[in-house]
Amino acid sequence: MNTVKLNVNGKEHELPLIEGTEGEKAIEISGLRSSTGLITSDTGYKSTGSTKSAITYLDGENGILRYRGYPIEQLAEKSTFLEVAYLLVYGNLPGKVELDDFVSKITRHTLIHEDMKKFYEGYPAKAHPMGVLASMISALSTFYPEAQKSDLDPEEVDTTIRRLIAKISTIAAWSYKKSQGFPVMYPQNRLNYCDNFLYMMFAQPTEDYEVNPVVSRALDTLLILHADHEQNCSASTVRMAGSSHASLYAAISSGVCALWGPLHGGANQQVLEMLEQIRKEGSDVKMMVERAKDKSSSFRLMGFGHRVYKNFDPRANIIKKVCDEVLEELGTDDPLLDIAKSLEEAALSDSYFVERNLYPNVDFYSGILYRAIGIPTEMFTVMFALGRLPGWIAQWKEMRDNNEPISRPRQIYVGHTKRDYVELSNRG
Ligand code: SDX
Predict the structure, then answer these.
(1) I need a labelling partner for 342 at 20 to 30 A (CA). Which of 17, 185, 278, 374 fits?
(2) How far is the CA of 263 from the centre of ligand 1 (A)?
(3) What confidence score (pLDDT) does residue 428 get?
C-alpha cells in the first residue's frame, strides 16, 4: 500500500495513498482525526473527494467524460436516453430484453395520481417550474410511503426508479401547460420517451400534433449529455440527503433545489437572458466580456467556466454541433446563436479567460437548442433536471448499495470564545 507521510508536531504519521482505475490518486484521511487530532479544511471541496465512484469519469484537463467507461461522444451518437439511464443506474449496457422491459415499465408509469393534478391549482401562474418540480417530486413520496423504508427492498427501489424517470416528464410538461392556462395532455403509451414529452408539452386537444423526429432526436441527445457528471453540486446534495436514509424521492427533490442555482443548472436560463440582453441593448459582446472581468461587478459570463473542465467541456462541443443541425433542419435563423458564437470568440481571445481556463460549458449552447425546440426559457433548468435524474439516481443507489455512512462534515469554529449571558437590562 503506497502511503504519504505527515509530520505533526515532530511525530510522523503515515496515511494511505489510494489510486483509482484511471490513475487518479488521493490521500485517504478518514483516520486522520483519530490519529492526529487534525481535520482538513477545503471550503467548496476543490481538493476533496467525497467518495469512490464507478459511475462517471471526468478528465478536466483533456475534456474527457465517460459514463461507466463509455465515451460521451459515442453515447450521444449511438445510444438513447433511456438506455443511458439504464447504463448509469445498473452499471452496464442492457441487452434487448432488459432494455425493452425497462422502457415498457417506464412507459406504464408516466401517469401521476389524479389528486396531484389538483396541486397545480395552488401554484401562482408565474410559479418557477423548478419550484413546482421540487415540490411535486417530494409530494410523490406521499403517494408511495413504502419508499420511505430505511432498509431497501431491491424490487421497491427498481419501481421507485422507474416511477421517477417516468413521472418527471409528465410533471414537467404539465407545469408548463398549467403556466399557460392550457389543458394538460396525458402521456401516450404509443410514443417513446422524448416524443411523449414533446407531445405533452406542445400538443393541444383541438388539433393533431406530429412530433418532428429531428427535434425529438436532438432532445434525446441533450438528455444524454446531461445525464450525469460525477460529484457536482446537485449530485453531492442527493448523496448527502440520501445518506440520512431519507427516501429517494426526498433526495431527488433536494437535488432539484441545488441544481436551480444560477452557478449550477440555473446557468442555462441565465445564458439566454444574457444573450437577450445583449441583443435588446444592442451592446457589443466585447463590453459584456469586459463587464465579466470587472471584479467590482458580480456579473459573470454565464455558461463560461467550470470547476473541473480546464480545457473544454466535451458536452458543449456536441451541443454546438447539434444546435447547428437542428436550426438548419428547422430553417430557423436564431440571432442569439450568432451572438453566442461571437461572445465565445471574444472571450476565448481574451487573456483573462484564457489564463483562467474559462471555456463554454454545457449551459452555454444548450439554451439556444432548447429554444429552437420550443422550450420556454424558464423551463431550461427543468430540462437539465430531466436529463440529470438518472445520474442522481445512480449516485444515490451507489451510495446506498455501498452502505456509506451518513455524511457529517466537521468544521473549524471561528466564532466567539466562551462568554457569559448578559441580562437585557445590562445590555445598553
Ligand atoms: C454546471 O460541477 C459540475 O459538473 C457542474 C455541471 C454539471 O454537469 O453538473 O457541469 C453543470 O453547473 C456548469 C457550470 C454552469 N455555471 C455557469 O456557467 C456560471 C458561470 N460560471 C462560474 O460561476 C464558475 O465558472 C463556476 C461556478 C462554474 C466554477 O467556479 P469555480 O470553479 O469555483 O471557479 P472560481 O469561481 O473560483 O473562478 C476562478 C476565477 C475567478 O477569478 P479570480 O478570482 O481568479 O480572479 O475565474 C473567474 C472567477 O472570478 N470566473 C469567471 C467566470 N467563472 C469563473 N469570471 C467571469 N465569468 C465567469 N463565468
Answers:
(1) 374
(2) 7
(3) 85
Q: Would you call 324 a catalytic residue per the annotation?
A: no
pLDDT of residue 282: 86
58: CA distance to ligand 1 center in Å? 16
CATH number of the CATH domain containing 11: 2.20.28
Ligand 1 pocket member 264 (CB < 6 A): yes
Q: Which domain holds residue 28?
A: 3-49
What's the average pLDDT block by block, 10 residues per block, for the chain (428 residues)?
A: 94 96 97 95 97 97 96 98 98 98 98 96 94 98 90 93 98 96 97 98 97 96 98 98 97 98 93 93 88 91 93 93 91 89 93 93 92 93 98 98 97 97 95
In this structure, the residue with its CA closest to atom 27 of ligand 1 is 263
Question: 265 alpha carbon to ligand 1 midpoint, in Å?
Answer: 12
From the list 306, 334, 350, 401, the catalytic residue is 306
Q: Are residues 23 and 145 in the same domain?
A: no
258 and 271 inside one domain: no
Indicate whether 82 and 194 sit together in one domain: yes
Residue type, 63: G
- Residue 220 Cβ < 6 Å to ligand 1: no
- Cβ 362 under 6 angstroms from ligand 1: yes
113 lies in the same domain as 257: yes
What pLDDT is attached to residue 295? 92
Q: What counts of helices (H) and strands (E) characterise the chain? A: 18, 6
Q: How far is the CA of 1 from the centre of ligand 1 (A)?
A: 36
Separation CA 222–CA 384 (nearest Å): 9
> Closest Cα partner for 226 from 388, 63, 389?
388
Q: Is 337 in the pocket of ligand 1 (CB under 6 A)?
A: no
260/130 Cα distance (integer angstroms): 7
Is 220 known to be catalytic? no
Residue 112 lies in a domain: yes
Number of domains, the chain: 3
Any atom of ligand 1 within 6 Å of the Cβ of 302: yes
Could you count the other beta carbons within 10 Å of the beta carbon of residue 7?
8
The answer to whether residues 112 and 214 belong to one domain is yes
CATH of the domain at 225: 1.10.580.10
300 ligand 1 Cβ < 6 A: yes
d(CA 313, CA 316): 5
Nearest residue by C-alpha to atom 13 in ligand 1: 264
Q: What is the pLDDT of residues 104-138, one digit of tens each?
A: 999 999 999 999 999 999 999 889 999 999 999 99
Q: How far apart are CA 11 and CA 17, in angstroms?
A: 19
Ligand 1 close to Cβ of residue 231 (< 6 A): no
